Amino acid sequence: MGATVSRTDFEWSYTDEPHATRRKEILGKYPEMKKLMGSDPNLKYSVLFLVIVQFISIYLVKDVSWTSLLILAYCFGGTINHSLNLAIHEIAHNLAYGHSKPLANRALGMFANLPIGFPVSITFKKYHLEHHRYQGDDEMDVDIPCRLEAKIFVNSFLKIVWVILQPFFYGIRPLFIRPKSLTVLEMVNILVQVVFDGLVYYFLGVKPLVYMVAGSIMATGMHPLAGHFISEHYMFVKGYETYSYYGPLNYLTFNVGYHNEHHDFPSIPGSRLPEVRKIAPEYYDNLPCHTSWIKVIWDFIVDPEIGPYSRIRRKQRSVNGVSDVNKSD
Prior knowledge:
It is a single chain. This protein is mainly alpha-helical. It folds into two domains: 1-36 and 230-316, no CATH class; 40-142 and 178-220, no CATH class. 52% of the residues lie in helices and 4% in strands. It has helices spanning 18-29, 43-60, 66-92, 102-113, 121-133, 147-152, 156-164, 166-177, 184-204, 206-219, 227-231, 259-264, 273-279, 293-302; strands at 11-12, 244-245, 289-290, 312-313, 318-319, 322-323. A two-stranded parallel ribbon has the order 1-4. The longest helix has 27 residues, at 66-92. It starts with 10 loop residues before the first strand and ends in a 6-residue tail after the last strand.
């Protein structure tokens, strides 16, 4: 079963998350950082390219064997879909068309969502922005594993299971930890996705649909790109809650590996995040970072000091004794 996780609780912090303070310091020292903020005009073209590639591959797999289909779904289709998920992450921050065109961003997000198979774009935005604003918050940050996950997945074998099932936990956890009513845009996202999936099934059969869905599931589980889920905020070094990754897989993931930089400046698109580190190296070069997402997954599984409990949490914030929950809406 492997080594048992040594932690029996989360790492509790009684200070604010570090990004707001660092952002203020950096902007005071390097006001030119503001020039990096704003939309990325090339993002929509990257999304268009990836979606077209997937449309072509969806058509081509309709006659392959099931074995070939699953291999292609893991190695190729799932990789593209993971990249599209991270394009959706960029779009959630309005980095495609800017904050002045929210509906254009939402529409592009739904378009990027099509090959993924599941309607995720609008719901992701709803919860992800709270992850930024309330990082580590005991009730608001649904990026953190729930206590039941931490209590169940307590040895190497069970951590393998947890890694494989990551897409299900990320999808289901918010519904239990912080349920919210469906919005109109979420219903539109669901309708558009169901219609697209239905058309794929009707005209091409079940194999292309399985290719889409299975690729999305496998590529967010035990897959090299999925290492970013663990690398970003799991506490590999005591006291540090956000980690950047500076390896080559950033080219496939819109630089999501530059995660300290992203949390410090969520209004700067991924394509410009390397410039953040170049402008203010003294703020990033000495922070713990990762160089391999595959190694991150391996260490998470085999190291008894790392597991679902390896996250920094904070008690829910309040202002004048009143819960801060409503401020997120």
